[in-house]
Amino acid sequence: MTETLTITKPDDWHLHLRDGDLMRAVLPYTAAQFARAIIMPNLVPPVVTTEDAKSYRDRIFSSIPENVDFTPLMTAYLTDNTDPEDLRAGISEKVFVGVKMYPANATTNSAHGVTDWRKTERVLAVLEETNTPLLVHGEVTDQDVDIFDREKVFIDEILLPLSKKFSTLKIVLEHVTTKDGVDFVKEGGKNIAATITPHHLVINRNEIFRGGIRPHLYCLPIAKREKHRLALRAAAVSGKECFFLGTDSAPHPISSKESECGCAGIFNAPTALEIYAQVFDEENALDRFEKFASFNGPNFYNLPVNDHKITLSKQGSESPDLIEISSTGDQLMPFLSGKELAWKVI
Ligand code: NCD
Ligand code: ZN
Question: What is the spatial distance between Cα 57 and Cα 240, in angstroms, rounded to a whole number?
Fold first, then answer.
């Protein structure tokens, strides 16, 4: 008999939904697998104020396919000039569930990010006081620091002093990619957590260059050495409350990926759960999958767990081919496009 696995419906604690046609093309994939998702605010221009987030949330709601139950959880994009009182209002109105800190110019659409975390101390104080998580893109932007070391240097130079000064602030090290990051989170208190992506669990940095350069495997933080991938797998399947699911699905049109200066971002929404399930299966840890996918995230965010269930079956599936972005004539290349996967969401 085909093996099946029924778990509480999961949430995606790190998602780039984009806007307009691109959002309408990708949203159904996420809404088919996840009940809620933390929506990243790095639009152009970014989602900075409570008003920005309300209007983005309205656009998301009007793009959700009919009869589909999906709740976007909004975040604010932190800048040097973010108004702490506007954030406080957005938090108390339950518009914002978190605030995202991008170091200026660290990644796609982060030009308005934070130039020095000390400039945001008044905001951090509001977050700490209101028990609202700070979500960090954990890479320094100094071009003199090797791209493979930027997470570790960020931890040493920014995260350690910041988390010491705001010692009860909830912090999520988003899309952790290194053993150093995993260790930082494990050694931290109950207020420190990390999301882990499907792609960082299955590729190491060699995959990006296997047989040539593979732009669709380029994302930030970039995939690291094998020892780091193994540390991420061990963390994900450990069942520890501080690690939970966040896809970092980050769609870019093929024309922006396959170019002289290709964008960072992997579009994994169509098969994210299947890939995670495969990893837990390979690690003989399917009994801990529900914690990682459905319990640890809501517990950290102080939100109820979902009451619906979802079933996966080990009947095999295939990651879809190219996906059209209507009206632009451009397409998206899903992660592992055309590859066989063991599991399928049914
Ligand atoms: C993200 C994007 O495209 O918005 N890209 C990525 O490689 N992950 C930004 C981000 O999360 O760094
Ligand atoms: Zn991201």
Answer: 32
Contacts of 182 (CB under 8 A, 6+ apart): 176, 194, 231, 232, 234, 235
18 Cα to the center of ligand 2, angstroms: 11
Helices then strands (H, E): number in the chain? 13, 15
Nearest to 328 by CA among 13, 1, 19: 19
Q: How far is residue 93's CA from residue 75's CA, in Å, rounded to a whole number?
A: 13
Choose the residue to mutate in 43, 248, 261 for probing ligand 1, maximizing ligand atoms within 8 Å of C-beta.
248
Query: Quick one: which ligand is closest to 40's CA?
Result: 2
246/292 Cα distance (integer angstroms): 10
- pLDDT per residue rounded down to tens, the chain (346 residues): 789 999 999 999 999 999 999 999 999 999 999 999 999 999 999 999 999 999 999 999 999 999 999 999 999 999 999 999 999 999 999 999 999 999 988 777 777 899 999 999 999 999 999 999 999 999 998 899 999 999 999 999 999 999 999 999 999 999 999 999 999 999 999 999 999 999 999 999 999 999 999 999 999 999 999 999 999 999 999 999 999 999 999 999 999 999 999 999 999 999 999 999 999 999 999 999 999 999 999 999 999 999 999 999 999 998 899 999 987 789 999 999 999 999 999 9
Please name the residue ranges forming H helices in the chain.
20-33, 50-61, 84-92, 121-130, 150-154, 160-165, 179-187, 198-202, 226-237, 254-257, 272-282, 289-290, 296-301
Under a CB-based contact definition with an 8 Å cutoff, are residues 70 and 113 in contact? no
Residue of 139, 220, 257, 333 to test ligand 1 pocket, by largest number of atoms within 8 Å of CB: 220
Q: Is the minimum distance from the CB of 103 to ligand 1 under 6 angstroms? A: no
Distance from residue 2's CA to the centre of ligand 2 (Å):
35
pTM beyond 0.90, yes or no: yes
